[in-house]
Amino acid sequence: MSRKIKPRNVDRPELHIIKYLSYSDYASRMMTCDHPVPPNRYDERVEEHLRSTGGIKLTWLRDLKERSQLTDENSIQVYVKCHIMLLIGTILFGDKSGASVHWKYLPLLSDFASIRQYSWGSACLAHLYRSLCRASRFDCKEIDGPLTLLLCWAWMRLPYLAPVPREPRSFSLANRWRNWERGDRVYRYHKLAHFWKALDELQEGQFLWVAYSGDRVDPDIIPAKIYMHSLIWSATVPLVSFECIEWHATDRFRRQFGFVQGSLDRAHGEVLTGPKNLNWATATTHSFWVMQWTNRYNHVLTDETMMPQQPLDTYMYWYRSKYGDHLNLSDLAVQ
């Protein structure tokens, strides 16, 4: 007796996800379903499913990626889009759940040619700043966001706190510490108190402010097409990623760009938080921040460059009078 084949549930919203917002060709919108249905541009079931659940399960994306046959252009695009969505949901813009990726990123994949034109770096910084802000609250126990970026930033600038890099000439720069535990087994046993004490004893010269200069990173390691954008690294502008808007306050850490740092003015004081599922495209205030980002070349820092051994009397006097010993981490009790 032949086995009955259970018909595929074509009404499951997850079968209709990729590119359903943009393409009229039904076959190109479907990820795994190929049943004959008249083409339509919009599927209310999918829209309602995504809005109610908030995202797409990462396990489903992984399974679909692994089952892709890569036999034609459409299957290759499905594979690549699954891979990108997994990167977005885990490394770039992951949340504390680690279970799903928000549906708002789907339209970004509708046009392959446009993907490389987005400023993914500034979007990652926006999410990292938002995560750090939330993690600074006294009742916060966890942190999410692009933590690989945070670790790489810290280890590049505080090498005496970093594990021994296994591949110092690797790019991306984070690959320097890939599989670091194989070559630096002692590092994994350092307790939190060890790092608190090391930060309290930090001396001038131990923090590498200009971490990507030629004497720190060989010029041929960072690709020229990436380094050419270093001109706008110091732009004091809002970083925009959908409803996530965070201020890139480069004027408060000028030394990172080789400039003299004086005493600081008051912080911007703008309230940049808002509803997570706000339709930012129609928000009245959103265009203001987008316009500032668009004009970022007009907001780069221009100032007197700092000599390597230039004293910081003005800044240090301001810092000590402002904060004193409040940041003495070694005095904190381990919770």
TrEMBL record:
One GO BP: meristem maintenance
Query: In what residue span(s) does the Aminotransferase-like plant mobile domain sit?
Result: 53-320
Superkingdom, natural source: Eukaryota
Q: What is this protein called?
A: Aminotransferase-like plant mobile domain-containing protein
Organism, as annotated: Arachis hypogaea
